[in-house]
Amino acid sequence: MQYALLIYNPDDDVADQAQRPIDPGIAAVLARPDVTGWIRLHAPGSATTVRHQEDRTLLTDGPFIDSKEYLAGLFLIEADNLDGALAIAGELLQEARPGTAIEVRPLLDGRFRGA
After folding, report:
1. How many H-runs (helices) and E-runs (strands) does the chain carry?
2. Residue 112 above 90 pLDDT?
3. Is the pLDDT of residue 59 over 60?
4. What pLDDT is attached to residue 115?
5. Radius of gyration, CA atoms only, the chain
6. CB neighbours of 51 closer than 8 A, spacing ≥ 6?
7. Which residue of 3, 47, 60, 75 has the smallest Cβ count within 10 Å?
8. C-alpha closest to that of 61 among 76, 73, 50
9. For residues 43-62, b (16+ Cβ closer than 10 Å) or e, as one string?
10. Could you give phi then psi for residue 23, rounded to 5 degrees?
11. pTM (2 decimals)?
12. What letters, b where the CB count within 10 A reaches 16 and e where it falls short, cover 5-36?
């Protein structure tokens, strides 16, 4: 089964991810065959939110939600079940910055079909 691991960092850790090297411990997890894809996102201030409202398209600079955490990246993994996905998330948390949270969600059928 495919799962998405949504990586959230504290909002006080907004240095642009693209400028940071990947931690060697995280890189080791990313290199495993059960990690089928991953992305890092630029800082939340680089976002533009597109919203449909009253038959108009509205653009807002920055992320739409105000939160104490922001979505920093996304990992796509293959795991036999939720316990397997949680184990991978736990490994990543051991290497992550303090305050990082990982949301584990199963994927619905779609175009993504692993590597």
Report:
1. 2, 6
2. no
3. yes
4. 47
5. 16
6. 57, 58, 59, 60, 64
7. 60
8. 50
9. bbeeeeeeeeeeeeeeeeee
10. -55, 135
11. 0.74
12. bebbbbeeeeeebeeeeeeeebeebeeeebbb
- What the block records as the tokens of 13 is 């850790």
User: Which residue has 């959230």 as its token pair?
Assistant: 8
CB 48 within 8 A of CB 61: yes
Going by pLDDT thresholds of 50, 70 and 90, the confidence category of residue 16 is low
Give the Cα separation of 21 and 57 in Å (integer).
37
Report the residue count for the chain: 115
**97, 9 Cβ separation under 8 angstroms:** yes
Sign of the C-alpha dihedral computed for residues 84, 107, 11 and 44 taken in this order: positive
Residue given tokens 């795991």 in the structure block: 79
- Sequence-ordered list of residues with C-beta below 8 angstroms from that of 59, at least 6 positions apart, any chain: 48, 49, 50, 51
